[in-house]
Amino acid sequence: MLLDMGNGKHEYRVEVAVLAFDEVGKRVAGQELTIAGKVSDAELQKFQSSDYHVHQTIQMPEHAAMLRLALRDVRTGHVGSLQIPVSAISSPYERKRLDVPPPTPQLKLRH
């Protein structure tokens, strides 16, 4: 995920997508974002050991049934995703925050 630039900097570039699908699997909403940055040698250990947060808001139609979160490392092409039913995170009368559980050790991305 991090590319050593050789000058005391490490570069990252990832694409994040949040997509909503209806009951038959047709995409009904979505938002994509590319995140890029550099981390110095001094910041590297803290960056690798901390949580990295990305905030995205997506407007979903009432008929959305599934929500998919996908992440792609642009440099390596590595991809990861998860999909959950919209009913697990929302109701017509209440807003909820989706808290994604931390990765299990065998699924954790390598730096």
What does this structure look like?
This protein is mainly beta. The protein has one domain (3-107). The chain is 8% helix and 40% strand. The protein has one helix at 41-49; strands at residues 3-4, 9-21, 27-40, 66-73, 79-85. Strands 1, 2, 3, 4 and 5 form a 5-stranded antiparallel beta sheet that branches. A hairpin with a 5-residue loop joins β2 (9-21) and β3 (27-40). The longest helix is centred in the middle third of the chain and has 9 residues, at 41-49. The model has no long low-confidence stretch (mean pLDDT 81).
List the helices and strands and how they pair.
Elements: E1 3-4, E2 9-21, E3 27-40, H1 41-49, E4 66-73, E5 79-85
Antiparallel strand pairs: 1-2, 2-3, 2-4, 4-5
| SSE sequence, one letter per element | EEEHEE
Please state the overall shape, judged from the principal axes of the Cα atoms.
elongated
Q: Low-confidence stretches at least 5 residues in length (pLDDT < 50)?
A: none
Main structural class: mainly beta
The structural domain count equals: 1
How confident overall, as mean pLDDT?
81
Biggest pleated-sheet summary? 5 strands, antiparallel
The total strand number stands at: 5
Q: What share of residues is helical?
A: under 10%
Please report which band the strand proportion falls in: under 5%, 5-15%, 15-25%, 25-35%, 35-45% or over 45%. 35-45%
Q: Give the helix tally.
A: 1
Gyration radius (Cα, Å) is 16 Å
- N-to-C CA distance: 5 Å
